[in-house]
Amino acid sequence: MATLFEQNRNYVLGDPELNIIGDRDKLAQWRHKAMGPAFYRLGRKIIYRGADLNEWAEANRFEPAKVRRD
C-alpha cells in the first residue's frame, strides 16, 4: 500500500501536503458530494487522518493496461 501521507498524522485544511490530492475548494466539493477521503468534522474544523488518506489513494490507484503490440 502506498504511504503518500504519514500514517499516524492528522492533517487539517491548509496543510500543504493535502495539495497532493486537491486544493481546498476541490476537497470541499468532494465533502459536499460525499466523495473523496474519509474525514472528521469537529465543529467547523475538518481533519483528515493520514491512514485514511493513504487508504483512499490506494483505492484510487490506476494501473494502465499493458498495450499488446503485434
Span of the ends, CA to CA: 34 Å
Structural class, judged by helices and strands? alpha+beta
Report low-confidence residues grouped into runs of 5 or more: none
Helix content: 25-40%
Walk me through the structure.
By secondary structure, the protein is α+β, with helices and mostly antiparallel strands. It has one domain (10-59). It is built from 2 helices and 3 strands. The protein has helices at 24-32, 50-59; strands spanning 10-12, 40-42, 45-49. Strands 1-3-2 form a 3-stranded antiparallel β-sheet. It is elongated. The model has no long low-confidence stretch (mean pLDDT 91). This is MerR family transcriptional regulator.
Briefly characterize the structure.
This is MerR family transcriptional regulator. The protein has 70 residues and is of the alpha+beta class.
Structural descriptors:
70 residues, alpha+beta, 3-stranded antiparallel β-sheet, 2 helices
Q: What is the strand and helix layout of this fold?
A:
Elements: E1 10-12, H1 24-32, E2 40-42, E3 45-49, H2 50-59
Antiparallel strand pairs: 1-3, 2-3
Organism: Roseovarius nanhaiticus
Protein name: MerR family transcriptional regulator
